[in-house]
């Protein structure tokens, strides 16, 4: 019997099929944005607990009103100036004796914060404040902390803080992870994120 | 001599499309790999604000999503125009948040529960009142790790 050569499959419609699938995936694709500002909420407290007494000069108050305007330390402020103001407050290091801060580079004014460990940023919102504004303010305040942490990280370990955290998460990191973790913790303790949010006013 | 003379025809030769399927397949594979199927159908407007101090949320299975915003136009007849919370596929009230957190925890393996993060996907025009109500409920449910999901970009765009 003569060997019949098998007929070639017609691949002409392959492109059409592929196009159809392509268009389906094009339409259904949503490039998800799963990044954001991570925060930790304070745990619920019993009512009897006395709030700790904090000196007025160690509080940096940021109030956002219902028209999305900022009041920082009782002065109206544009959002663009908030980051600088927060950095100046945190970096002031006006304390003396046991409260002195040897890594602060601020003006050491006696009217501003003693020490980054004491400095608290207090954020008060109105219930009618827009969420977008709130995120902007949060972003600027977190940026202030990140800037200062970065500065210390560069000075002490010649690496940016972001890089250190990335290295820590990196599985292929060649250096010693234990020391890296200690270094990250040290810098976090130098600039603890003390960001207190009051219940919004109605 | 005339043997080597090419036949001259006035028509242009057809473009060779043999590699077209390959190109299309390449694109197809890219989109197949890049696609994340939406878990929930959104019933609300959800324009996220911008921020640039962001951290990435990896481990998608350890994230609980809470959406909030104004109902989309097709649901406004039933749900009104005030900002609402959406849990899974339905509108919900503030009181349902705790229950939602508990049922999400139930579905996860016990050792993973401490690592659960709540991602708040809130429309930028929502009032803070609703967001703080949600946060208060999360505190009651002891789901303290939260993440305000944002788009990456200059945060000052939110104020315009």
Structure notes:
The complex is a heterodimer of chains A (202) and B (160). Chain A has 202 residues and is an alpha/beta fold. Chain A has helices at 14-28, 82-90, 131-157, 161-169, 177-190; strands spanning 35-40, 59-64, 70-72, 75-77, 120-125, 195-197. In chain A, 37% of the residues lie in helices and 13% in strands. Chain B has helices at 20-34, 76-79, 96-107, 128-140, and strands at 50-51, 55-56, 63-69, 84-87, 90-92, 117-122, 145-152. Chain B starts with 19 loop residues before the first helix and ends in an 8-residue tail after the last strand. Helix content of chain B is 28%, strand content 20%. Chain B has a domain at 50-152: Nucleotidyltransferase, domain 5. Chains A and B meet through α1, β1 and α3 of A and α1, β1, β2, β6 and α4 of B. β1 of chain A pairs antiparallel with β2 (55-56) of chain B.
Residue runs with pLDDT of under 50 for 5 or more positions of chain B: none
- Radius of gyration of chain A equals 27 Å
Unreliable stretches of chain A: none
Which structural class best describes the helix and strand composition of chain B? Answer: alpha/beta
Major sheet: arrangement of strands of chain B: 1-7-6-3-4-5
Report Rg of chain B.
Answer: 26 Å
For the report, how would you describe the main beta sheet of chain A? 5 strands, mixed
- Portion in beta strands of chain A: 5-15%
Bulk shape of chain A: elongated
Number of helices of chain B: 4
CATH architectural grouping of the domain at 50-152 in chain B? 2-Layer Sandwich
Report strand % of chain B. Answer: 15-25%
What is the N-to-C order of secondary-structure elements of chain B (H for helix, E for strand)?
HEEEHEEHEHE
Q: Overall pLDDT of chain A, averaged?
A: 82
Distance between the termini of chain B: 78 Å
